[in-house]
Amino acid sequence: MDQARLDIAAAHRLGARFQFNEGFNGGHFTLMAPGYSDRILTIPNGLHWEEVCPDALILIDLAGATVEGEGGVERSAFHIHSALHLRRPDLRCFLHAHMPYATALSMLKDNRLRPYGQQALRFHTKCAYYDHYNALAHEQDEGERMAEALADRSVLFLGQHGVIVGGPTVGQTFHDLYYLERACMNQVMALWTGQELRVIPDEDGRKAEAQYDGQRSEAELHFTSLKRVLAREDPAFKDIRVPVNVKAVSRTAS
Q1: Which listed site, 72, 191, 209, 223, has its alpha carbon 20 to 30 Å from 181?
Q2: How many domains does the chain have?
Q3: Helix spans in 65-139 (H)
Q4: Region of residue 141 (phi > 0: left; psi between -120 and 50: alpha; otherwise: beta)
């Protein structure tokens, strides 16, 4: 549990660093607690992402009650994330963020992430879309509709709202959230030029996506490196696990 607390707390701190949040509750991150299928780690309402540390997290049940820690879960965070965790138990972590470029893309009439650039190909067949903006998610059925829209994908674009990314670990999920924002940034900036954009053929897109999927271990390396940066500033984020022995990859000149 200590490692899980460290990881989801680090994701909040890093989310603030990369400006994935708005104010203190512009999005929410959750992790199903290790060994449980009905206990979720998150932050209490009112805590800014820049303030989050492992000890500040709360553990809630699927009814929204705090069973460990101080404070309560934000209303929309509970409705969205409880539905997602119930629908997709294979995705232990869900990160919902109002990231600038992903949110900007979600506001367009054509709000699809297109295969215009390499980073978008990471998500070539992984994106789902929930285009019906129904105000704030203050009712449980709104979260259920989002979970239904996600279906068997791992990325959900919310119309006029932002994105949700799910994954089996915090590291893999944060890695995907980071590169999703980069892909959206590339697309939005390219659209600013007003020029016609070139589309990568589906066959090539699927090939690149398979290549990215084949090197998923890099996601954990990425997240671990980001935690090392945090640990230099705050000892609370010193990784509990034994550091990964990263071996250099030999490259031959082509």
Answers
A1: 72
A2: 1
A3: 75-87, 100-106
A4: alpha
What is the pTM for the complete model shown?
Answer: 0.91
Residue 152, in any domain of the structure: yes
Contact 80, 106 (CB under 8 A): no
Instruction: State pLDDT tens for residues 11-56.
Output: 999 999 999 998 777 789 999 999 999 999 999 999 999 999 999 9
Report d(CA 99, CA 15) in Å as an integer. 9
CA distance readout (Å), 52 to 15, 24, 130, 139: 11, 11, 29, 26
- Per-residue confidence (pLDDT) for residue 204, from 0 to 100: 98
Region of residue 19 (phi > 0: left; psi between -120 and 50: alpha; otherwise: beta): left
Domain region containing 59: 2-237
Cα end-to-end distance, the chain, whole Å? 46
Residue 238: per-residue pLDDT: 85
The per-residue pLDDT for 23 is 76
User: Cα(134)–Cα(29) distance, rounded to whole angstroms?
Assistant: 21
CATH of the domain at 171: 3.40.225.10
Domain assignment of residue 245, yes or no? no
Helices (H), the chain: 2-17, 75-87, 100-106, 140-150, 170-192, 202-213, 217-233
User: Parallel, antiparallel, or unpaired for β 39-42 and 27-32?
Assistant: antiparallel
**190 within 8 A of 197, measured Cβ to Cβ:** yes
CB 44 within 8 A of CB 53: no
Q: Which residues contact 118 (CB under 8 A, 6 or more apart)?
A: 208
pLDDT beneath 70: ranges in the chain: 135-140, 242-254
Query: How high is the pLDDT of residue 140?
Result: 65
